[in-house]
Amino acid sequence: MSQITSYLHKELLTIDTDFVGKDIISLDQFSTKDLHKVFDLTQQMKWIATNNVPSQTLAGMVVSLLFFEPSSRTFASFAAAVRRMGGQTIDILNPKTSASIYKGETFEDTIRVLEAYSDAIVLRHHITGAASIASEAAEFIPVVNAGDGENEHPTQTLLDLYTVYEHFGRLDNLTGLLAGDPLHSRTLHSLLRGLSLFAGNTVYILSPEQLRLTRDDFLYFRSRGLEIIEITSEKDIPRRCQFWYWTRIQKERFATQEEYNAAVAETFIVTPRLLSEYASEEMILMDPLPRVGTIDPAVDRDKRAVYLRSQIRNGLYTRMALLALILGRA
């Protein structure tokens, strides 16, 4: 079984509107200009995908999808993104049991081998910092972080921010509700980073006491100009929120089933009643999925529920745009 042998604190390269050849490891690499550059291209990619227009944007290119953690949406979204643009993928799911890693190959060597075969690597891993280590090991091609441990999931945040931007036409001076598992959720961590890039944003974080952000994370995001208000009761949800963002309890991050059960027992579920009492008519309801104890299916037909409509589709379009940018084919 392979182990990650080192944590090299590689300095992340800021994008500065030039994506070509750069690793995508953290939202901290992005400026507001960078995000808008992705969003502008996303509009074009949406047109290509929704109209089934044959594209040769990535013709002749190969992208390795290396997923050490189970995934359906993120994996399928990246695979579809590459193929929609005429590229091909090397698909490696659960490499701990199906690849040379099982024979004892190091994580770094696995990255170097795939680097020899492909033009980019998309990596998901259960260990925090794995994406940064992979980017250090790969000298010649970009690495895209598709989620590493409890750290970040930057491409999820690109689609989440785009979904909000598409609906409201801006990403500043917004009020949002983030609920579920802020302690463990990498999607929430990345989303907080993204929202902190824009002025005037306020987020209410609804969770049980034991699932709150760490104090260090709380102070860090506050230091970036993001107003954070932690609440533990649905009665404290303000009706002025433009968006709700619900996340599941991260079962895989708990040491025992008992600890997980205790956390689940104190969490909140979006129901028609909750929407009726606390949500405005203009807000949108988001969920990065999978939907595990987060939203009652009875909510699905509500016009404000975008998680199975625009949000999930935006994952395809934004990842198409990002890959085209980093591979120099935009």
Please give a structural write-up.
The chain has 11 helices and 9 strands. The protein is globular and about 55 Å long. Helix 2 packs across helix 11 and helix 6 packs across helix 7. With 330 residues, the chain is of the alpha/beta class.
List the helices and strands and how they pair.
Layout (H helix, E strand, L loop, with lengths): L31 H19 L11 E6 L5 H12 L3 E6 L1 H4 L8 H11 L2 E6 L4 H8 L5 E6 L5 H15 L6 E5 L6 H10 L6 E5 L8 H9 L3 E5 L11 E4 L10 H8 L7 H7 L5 E3 L20 H20 L4
Parallel strand pairs: 1-2, 1-3, 3-4, 5-6, 5-8, 6-7, 8-9
Helix pairs in contact: 1-11, 2-11, 6-7, 6-11
Query: What is the molecular shape?
Result: globular
**Spatial strand sequence of the major β-sheet:** 7-6-5-8-9
Note the total helix count: 11
Distance between the termini: 39 Å
Ranges where pLDDT stays below 50 over 5 or more residues in a row are 5-9
Helix content: 25-40%
Order of helices and strands: HEHEHHEHEHEHEHEEHHEH
Radius of gyration: 19 Å
Which class do the helix and strand fractions yield? alpha/beta
Strand content bin = 5-15%
Number of strand elements? 9
Average pLDDT figure: 90
Please describe the biggest sheet, giving its number of strands, its sense, and whether it closes into a barrel: 5 strands, parallel
